[in-house]
Amino acid sequence: MSKKNINLSSVKGTHDILPHEQFVWEKLRKGIRHVAEIYSFSRIDTPILENLDLFQRGVGEATDIVEKQMYTLTTKGGDKLVLRPEGTSAIARAYIQHGLSHMSQPLKVYYDGPFFRYEQPQAGRYRQFNQVGFEIIGGENDPIYDVQVMITALRLLESLKFKNISIHLNSIGCKACRAIYKKKLLNYYKNNKKEICKDCNRRMLDNPLRLLDCKDEHCEAVKKEAPSIIDDLCTPCRKHFKEVLEYAEELKLPYQIDPFIVRGLDYYNRTVFEFFVEIESADGEKTTSLALGGGGRYDYLFEILGHRNTPAIGMAFGMERIVEAIKACNINLLPRQKNKIFLIAIGIEAKKKGLSLIEEFAGSGINVSESIGKNSLGAQLKASDKEGASWALILGQKEVFKESVIIRDLKTGVQETVLLKKVVAEIKKRL
Ligand code: AMP
Question: The pTM is what?
């Protein structure tokens, strides 16, 4: 193939995270590790490849993810696999496979990593994206865990200096009360059939709760008057939701009840929620809400996968969304401190000495930048300027011969020659 034919763009819907963007991602990962530690979540990593039927069964056939968005492949051996589209089903699979119910319950785990959905790429929507998720599995079916997941997620956003955070909270009940509500909802939509979009007409047949998810402007108008599921919750579901609200009040969570939050996936029951941040336009005139993530209870998932009933609750944030929201909110997360010391070496012998010197500094916990691939003093000085270093250590032939090195203050230009064996101590004095 000639060079001309190689497509050098990243695959549609995927993106690179470049070196200068990494510090925000690193802050995010650090924030994740920090809250996970505070709230006792242990890390779990599951493979990117999973069996197709895990998601067909777990997430549900009548969901967008399974219907339209999965990257599926058949191996040479005939196995039907997918690039994981979400984390919860895979974690449930790992919990069952490894008998994690024998560990202290509930099991609190977190993960972050890439996920894949074949969606139409647009702002904040990719085909390969990263999610971070927190899950509390097993133990009692206690509403306190619902609130623990929410507080962990909230503290993560707060650690990243987000201010206007809101949690939209709802309960979608259990199989029994949801069935009654679905009938009511369908009756209401049947009377408004002509007003709603084609997709919603289909949703009426295969996933009526998703009617409340539609963002089409005609459907929005119909949705506004739709019956609310909260009115139809059975007594145990009502009690569960009431306790969630009481705990949320106690912790002063910034929540609001939103009967339109239903979450798309089959495995959810009772508590469901989504996290939003308010983003101001550049002129400060308008604010828009950006959805960063959400989750809910999934007490049925383990049964769906053929295991015994196991209560569980979890949530996931889109990491690209968080990074984009950090930019949109003008949050100033300080980048990595640049190195203050820059090594300049002219000639092969000086470069050899220079390499050892970098190691010696590293051993003392001091990072040294360099650009010793460049030959001239001028080019290396220019590079030290770009790095914003405070001091240059200059090694030329003469210095190598005399076992010394020049310390040059890059702000004032003042230079001093010191013995090589004393340079680390000299620099330590100045830092
Ligand atoms: P979900 O797993 O669909 O509940 O999504 C949880 C969060 O993951 C969303 O609120 C987004 O922040 C993020 N997310 C989901 N799908 C995508 C995507 N295609 N591209 C980027 N982020 C996504």
Answer: 0.88
